[in-house]
Write a structure and sequence with these properties.
Elements (H helix, E strand, L loop, with lengths): L1 H23 L4 H11 L2 H14 L3 E3 L9 H8 L11 H6 L19 H9 L8 H9 L11 H8 L3 H12 L11 H9 L5 H12 L1 H5 L3 H8 L3 H12 L7 H11 L8 E6 L2 E6 L7 E3 L1 H12 L5 H38 L1 H6 L10 H8 L3 H8 L3 E3 L5 E3 L6 H14 L9 H10 L6 H10 L5 H6 L1
Parallel strand pairs: 2-5
Antiparallel strand pairs: 1-4, 2-3, 5-6
Length: 466
């Protein structure tokens, strides 16, 4: 009898431990939602809010009592002929209904699937249920180029699972298309694309990338020939295999996605303005103040909580959607706070550039430094700044990437110097370096040459002849 009791206790303990393990492995949905909303630009955020309003009956948008009258409304009432499309407005004409019933095949062109959605569709079905949240979070951590910059230990800590389980998910991600996605660096990215090589050239290419990447970059063909006892022709073919690989597997998705998402032109996601009263940071797009939990749902939740035996299904329905609405509003507000904090940081650290738009005042800055100073993770900074734009005090709109490119300051200064030089006596690279040194930027002549080539600027001899 005692043995049976201990057996029951053992089973109960085993069940309890298993249940607790499953619970710990569940990632907080608010973490995933906050990451997703932070990555959106203002137009995408508006679409996400519209989707949530359609799916969640407990979420409401506060409407303004009086909508401002736009110039288009005035034109429509006073002179509607001004709004009629001209004969040259082809895109507008093409979008009008066709009375002849002829359809344009472009209207049925499939939209490009975003990289993360493309990967989730492949990865999540291959994972156990308790690791799907980890997989979803890992995919959200990827950069637009397909790299995983967040440490596996950090992912394990956030998702509350073991490092071995994170590595298991990463291995599954590495098997997804496009090949090389989820790599932690260029070497791993190339090796993933060469995995399972069958031909001699690709097998050799994999070994070169793994053990002699420096020799490949220096094109030391003979050294590799001696190391593997092969002919130079074989090494050259292996080099060609390496050159045919894609160093940024997610880049194609980012480029096509950006083209489709930016159909209305560039708009600033963050506006930094200066007045007599000081600086103002404005985060564009909707904010949490325009959303609220439905009063009807809040009232019904209170009534159900006061009942001794409320209907179970109804109570669960109300609680789930009310909590979902609160979480969504909270994440929208968190996104705005993060963007505002980044804007205030840029004003403090990049005041000269933000005030004037002059690249000579642009100071070296990294996402890692910004994240450390703000007390947030670097991946959070990456999501908040990816594919977003800032409007400076002078009205110029620049990409966030500008603040994280140390070489851009020197490039712009070189362009400015060349724009004001005497065409009959153009400056040499050494003279440009001396001018930069007087402005406090010390660079070598070959550095000037490199930056000038990168920006497609001609040499002094060719500029004179031109």
């Amino acid at each position: 009898m005692g043995t049976g009791f201990r057996g029951v206790a053992k089973l109960r303990n085993g069940f309890s431990n298993t249940q607790r393990l499953d619970t710990n492995l569940r990632i907080d949905p608010r973490v995933v939602l906050a990451s997703q909303l932070l990555q959106l630009n203002q137009n995408e955020l508006e679409q996400s809010i519209d989707t949530e309003l359609n799916e969640n009956p407990a979420l409401e948008r506060l409407q303004d009592e009086v909508e401002p009258i736009s110039d288009e409304d005035v034109y429509r009432a006073v002179c509607p002929q001004e709004l009629r499309p001209g004969s040259e407005d082809f895109e507008f004409q093409r979008s009008l209904p066709n009375d002849e019933g002829v359809l344009d095949w472009l209207d049925f062109a499939a939209a490009v699937q975003p990289l993360r959605e493309h990967l989730k569709a492949q990865l999540l079905p291959t994972l156990p249920r308790h690791l799907q949240g980890v997989g979803e979070y890992m995919v959200e951590c990827l950069t637009d180029k397909g790299y995983l910059e967040e440490a596996l230990e950090e992912i394990a800590l956030i998702t509350e699972c073991s490092l071995e389980e994170v590595e298991e998910v990463l291995q599954k991600l590495h098997s997804c298309e496009p090949a090389g996605v989820g790599a932690r660096g260029i070497q791993e990215c190339l090796l993933l694309q060469l995995a399972g090589a069958e031909s001699l050239e690709r097998k050799l290419a994999a070994r070169i990338v793994r053990d002699f990447l420096d020799d490949f970059m220096a094109r030391k063909t003979l050294r590799i020939c001696r190391r593997y006892d092969v002919m130079p022709e074989v090494v050259e073919k292996a080099f060609s295999e390496i050159l045919s690989l894609c160093p940024f597997p997610g880049e194609a998705f980012a480029e096509r996605g950006a083209a489709s998402n930016r159909s209305f032109g560039i708009t600033a996601d963050l506006t930094l303005t200066r007045s007599e009263s000081g600086w103002t940071v404005h985060v564009s797009g909707p904010d949490a103040s325009c959303l609220r939990v439905s009063r009807a749902y809040s009232r019904r939740q209170k009534e159900l909580n006061e009942k001794e035996r409320p209907p179970r299904d109804e109570k669960r329905h109300v609680e789930v959607f009310v909590q979902r609405a609160k979480d969504f509003i909270s994440c929208v507000e968190q996104r705005r706070k993060t963007m505002r904090a980044i804007g205030e940081y840029l004003i403090e650290k990049q005041n000269g550039f933000v005030s004037t738009g002059d690249y000579a005042f642009l100071q070296p800055l990294t996402r890692s430094q910004l994240a450390t100073d703000l007390g947030i993770h670097e991946s959070t900074v990456s999501r908040a700044t990816a594919d977003k734009f800032v409007q400076l005090a002078d009205g110029e709109i620049v990409a966030f990437e500008v603040f994280f490119k140390p070489a851009l300051r020197v490039q712009k200064m070189i362009e400015s110097i060349l724009a004001t030089e005497n065409p009959g006596n153009p400056l040499s690279d050494e003279q440009i370096a001396e001018i930069l040194a007087k402005k406090g930027v010390v660079v070598a002549r070959r550095t000037v040459n490199k930056y000038r080539d990168r920006t497609k600027l001609l040499s002094s001899r060719k500029r004179r002849s031109a």
